[in-house]
Amino acid sequence: MKKRLILCLVTIFSLFIMIFTLSGCSNNVGNQNADLANFVSGTTPFETLETFVTKFPDRTSTQSYNSDPSKDAALWIAEQFVSFGYDTHYNKGADTEGLDIFTYNNQVTSKMETAYNVVFKKESASEKTVVVAAHYDNVYDIKVNNQQLATDGTYNNGTGVATLIETARVLKDIDLPFDVIFVAFAAEEFGWYGSERFLSNYVDKDNIMLMINFDRNAIGDYVYMYSSEAKTKHNTFFYDIVRDNNLCIADLPSFRAPALTPVPSNSYFSNEANWADSDLFLAEGINIVNFISMNFTPFGVEEIKGQDSIAYTKNDTFDNIVLRLGGGDLAKQKIDKQINSAVSAVVYAMQDENFVNVMTTSKANNGMDTFASFKVISIIAYSLIGVAIVVLLVCYFVVGKTAKTHDIYIDTIYGRINKNTGKVENAVNKESNKGDNTSNIFGNEFDNKNSNNTANSNNANGKNNRDKTNDIFGDF
To answer: What's the confidence (pLDDT) of residue 23?
Structure first.
């Protein structure tokens, strides 16, 4: 029994190792030395991040506490785009220029809330479009069970806003053969309402070649670029740009710990990289590249190795993060390195002569749209579990049955007893084996057919006629 149990455990372990190996759990972090990277010039990531989050620590998309903090943050972002010379179709010339104002049903506050998307555009002669976006809201002023959820949201998602602004700053003087729409989404934290609003209003989705999203894309251990669970042409294209310019972006490992809650795209293997506005675009079949900064491990995801989580905690503040990253100069170096890597990847990719061709021929899920169904995913998952169980049962019974057992013997005065079978081998009196089955274990003293012979034999030897159990167990 012990051998079969060990065999079963070895089989399970072997299957686990095989799946784990095929999943490609290794992580190539690439170049992480900023001195070797070919960054674009003219950016101020650290300064932009510090200004934004310290000036607008509360950007919660609610009015439930008699204030409207997200509106001031949205207006400041709009001012940056106006200063770069970008145009907008929303409230042009008004004091809310660039703001798409909408309402949504907040499930936390149980109220209809007002929110503000910030939308600006870089025009071209083409109908083709690239959307570059980040959400700017946080959950500074939201309380659940009388506990405040977070603070100024430097990591989530001040970093994304800073990257969005710096990308717009660099692109303002670069001619491109397609439109670029810059969007700062509101109400992301309550259910991606800002991106949902944008997509519901945008009538020409077929001409969106790509959606680029910045969400928590700095401060973590590594920056990654996520497109989908499939290997897409546009994701490969972006990683080629990264390698050609030694940008500080790591390869996204093929194995990522699954997220148990379904996402809008119904990705057949959802994970932390899906939890962003970009997933709504992926659900529409639009190519995406989502920049995220954290550390994917073989068994989960962490933001900074060896440190507690930052997002949605009191630790997500600018001052605390600067201390975590080693102080002013070291923090600036890391934040500049990671944000400039994302900005440079986007700018260099857009300027590449093959960009439009790759983006228009690539597929959002590279043919895996069939799997974008919860029902299909469930059927496949249960089928795989069933197959695994059958394989284990076959291994357990077939291999276990053919495995030769090792015989163990006990020597008695009546012969050797095979402990596995209970049979007497090399018995002194072979005729005793013909009696009752008790002779197989205790000898022929208990065989009814031979009891008389046994008694006579004992009397002949001068022994008392008594219970013979003492021959094995001692005298009772």
So the answer is: 43
Q: Pick the residue with more confidence: 96 or 259? A: 96
The answer to whether the CB of 279 falls within 8 A of the CB of 286 is no
CA gap 283, 268 in Å, rounded: 12
Burial of 198 (0-12, 13-18, 19+ CB in 10 A): buried
The length of the chain in residues reads 476
> Predicted confidence band at 468 (pLDDT cuts at 50, 70, 90)?
very low
Q: Which pTM value belongs to this model?
A: 0.76
Cα(322)–Cα(334) distance, rounded to whole angstroms?
10
Residues 184, 185, 187, 193, Cα dihedral to 10°: 170
In angstroms, the Cα distances linking 475 to 439, 445, 453, 472 are: 19, 15, 22, 9
Written as one letter, the residue type at 476 is F
Q: What is the mean pLDDT of the chain?
A: 83
Report yes or no: 344 and 247 within 8 Å, Cβ to Cβ.
yes
Q: Select from 195, 229, 232 the least CA-distant residue to 377.
A: 229
CA angle 336, 341, 343 (to 5 degrees): 95
Query: What amino acid is encoded at 85 in this protein?
Result: G
Q: Provide the phi-psi class of 443: left if phi over 0, else alpha when psi is between -120 and 50, else beta.
A: left
Give the C-alpha separation, 195 to 119, whole Å: 11
- Band of pLDDT at residue 203, cut at 50, 70 and 90: confident
Under the banding of pLDDT at 50, 70 and 90, the label for residue 435 is: very low
3-state secondary structure the chain: CHHHHHHHHHHHHHHHHHHHHHCCCCCCCCCCCHHHCCCCCCCCHHHHHHHHHHHCCCCCCCCCCCCCHHHHHHHHHHHHHHHHCCECCCCCCCCCCCEEEEEEEECCCCEEEEEEEEEEEECCCCCCEEEEEEECCCCCCCEECCEECCCCCHHHHHHHHHHHHHHHHHHCCCCCCCEEEEEEECCCCCCCHHHHHHHHHCCCHHHEEEEEEECCCCCCCEEEEECCCCCCHHHHHHHHHHHHCCCCCCCCCCCCCECCCCCCCCCCCCEHHHCCCHHHHHHCCCCEEEEEEEEEECCEEECCCCCCCCCCCCCCCHHHHHHHCCCHHHHHHHHHHHHHHHHHHHHHHHHCCCHHHHHHHCCCCCCHHHHCCHHHHHHHHHHHHHHHHHHHHHHHHHHHHHCCCCCCEEEECCEEEECCCCCEECCCCHHHHHCCCCHHHHCHHHCHHHHHHHHHHHHHCCCCCCCCCHHHHCCC
